[in-house]
Amino acid sequence: MDASALPEEFRVAVAQLRAARLRPEVFCEEMPAPQRIAPFASALSADVTVDGQEVGTGRIVLLHDPAGNDAWDGTFRCVAYARAEIDPEMANDPLLAEVGWSWLSEALAAHGAGYLAPSGTVTKVSSESFGGMADEEASAQLEIRASWTPVAVGAGAGLLDLGPHAEAWGELLCTASGLPPVPEGVAPLPSRRGQRGRG
Fold this sequence. Notes:
about 20% helix
């Protein structure tokens, strides 16, 4: 679609999403967005890499319906997904799903991202191998699927800023992947964008 045919509000929101500052361990790039959920959509995918090994992956989709959507309680909706390898012992923790969900709400709060109508699921999957594959170690993954309606906050409450929402999603990815938090007062270096396979 021609960019000039996009609503200005959506173009600004997409630019804010793309300009979000993510940790250097997060490699982020644009991906095709689902076309049938809303009149306008944009999406980013990301991989979390530590010491050359991918430890997490995810995506965030920004949906926009200028006419509004009753289910969203607004005209924008963020849809996020995060998947990470976890210690198989962690998968047995009955509180893991609740903790996984709290990572999202805490990340949104930490980045000052105002939101309404959150919903989602946290899934833990553990695998053990048998027979001819018995030598393979047990593995486990955590998947967080969430959506929320971004709202403007603060003094300029009429202006929506999607940057903090993308940054909160990036933090969720890193937390789920087991990365320690960035110390307070330390700004993360910008992540690599569109540089896959260049060294």
